[in-house]
Amino acid sequence: MAHLSWYRKYRPQTFDDVVGQTHIERTLRNAVSEGTVAHAYLFTGPRGTGKTTTARILAKALNCEKGPTADPDDTCEQCVAISEGTHPDVHELDAASRTGVDDVREQIIGRVNYAPSRGTWKIYIIDEVQMLSPAAFNALLKTIEEPPGHTVFILCTTHPHKIPETIHSRCQHFDFHRLSVEDIVGRLRVISDAEGVKVPDGALAIIAKHALGGMRDAITTLEQLASFGGGTISVEDVEGLLGDVDTDLLFQAAELVLDRDVAGAFRFVARLAEAGVDMSEFVKGMVRHFRDLFVIAAVGADGAVDTTADDRGRLDSQAARFGSDRIARVLELLGRVSTELRYASDQRLAVEVALTRMARPQGDITLESLAERLDALEAGTPLKDVVIASTSPAPLPDEPRSSRAEKPETAKSRPVAEKSAQDADEPARSARDRGTLDVKSVKRAWPAVLAEFKKLKPSRSQLFNGTEAEVDGEVLVVEFPADQEMLVSLAEESETLSVLRRSVATVLGTEPLIEYRLGRSGGSTEAPVLVAPADTVLEASVIAELGAELIDDVTHEE
Fold first, then answer.
1. Long-range contacts of the stretch 466-470 (C-beta < 8 A, 24+)
2. Do strands 172-175 and 151-157 pair parallel, antiparallel, or not at all (unpaired)?
3. Low-confidence ranges of the chain (pLDDT < 50)
4. Are both 22 and 168 inside the same structural domain?
5. What is the CATH number of the domain that holds 278?
6. Which of 24, 268, 344, 435 has the lowest CB atom count within 10 Å?
7. How many domains does the chain have?
């Protein structure tokens, strides 16, 4: 005797066995119990979701020797014949092989007027009905609209848009949904236990996700893996056969990004490469994972994230710690690397670079990464190395103030804090605590300093509109426009200066000496200052930072 495939062996035989289609099961049960069965039904939905199976169960419910009943016994002669496909009053037609009008006339129209021979109802189940020709649909139309008594038509299709509207309007339409991962895992567990197959829940979850909501596909894959593993299925077997990535690996990768662990990310990718994981499949899995995180972080999304109950709790935790804005940036980077992998000569390197950018926005000069860095500053948790370490030569030792004073000035200086004044606030601070300033790093960080200042002292933030940051040895020089001497006077107030010091310390991680200067007068060769309204400091920060980089590049080229 030929082997019976598992998806046929474990096909639901009663309404109670149907999984994941409660809305359809309940409606048909009530229709049978109340004697309100329609003369024509249209079952639509993806493959493997139970359309034909439900049609057969409805046929049993109508023709059962105890019926019509919503709970056919599945043991009487009528039910057994329907299960075996030998009942003379239940006709299953494949429209894919009988598409013409002559087939419809011979198989349906010419026989529909005959009374049932063994049961009480005649049932016509037409699979892949969208394959019928327009002429065949037209020939069938009148029969479906006014069939003989005790005749029911059940049309099944995966492409409802191909069914003529004239047929749609004459049928009760039931839409079969894709099954959830949890529903599929539960059914696969029942089957594996019945067949004596040892398989962990993680492997079943991968099979269920790969099936994309189709129970038949999931059961077929389970049977194939059981044959491959000799009755034992491991997660590695599933990954090797399907190419999918274990959910735990995706959670691990997300944790590395969340913790900004770049070194750990490189070790993680090395383990993937050693295990032979396909980098393209890994990135696809990451996209699905962060899509779920984004939905949960944005709207909480009950029903919009298809996963198991255990994984849902872990997703909720990660989504809360990431935040929707940061997840959106990660999705942008994943989209880019997905495209790059098609042409990359070294896919491992492409994934390593992408994970580094996700974990360390300081090394990625894009609007999204700059926004993430500013968000961290506003939240009071600045990234540890927002200011990129300088690779330029160390600055020359400071000249004595007297010798500097003898040189022609190009701008009016307004020293607001001599060394003794600042040391009065923190006597123990040394030159090492102040650190060495780098012009490029300070210019890049200045917009972030202004954003931090606005958070601490919004009422005074307008004083520094249009200012630029320069470095003179160990002194941070704040240059004001040449005609804004009044603003300099206001900025010299002790409270304002104290807030500025705190802002600089938060962003730069050091507390340098601060000096105010009026900008150079006409004839200046400096690039124009980017000035933004006071209420859009965050946007101005991004623009100013990019502008500073462009200025540095132009200066370097000159």
1. 466/529, 466/531, 467/529, 468/443, 468/519, 468/526, 468/529, 469/442, 469/443, 469/445, 470/439, 470/442, 470/517
2. unpaired
3. 1, 363, 365, 385-412, 414, 416-434, 521-558
4. yes
5. 1.20.272.10
6. 435
7. 4
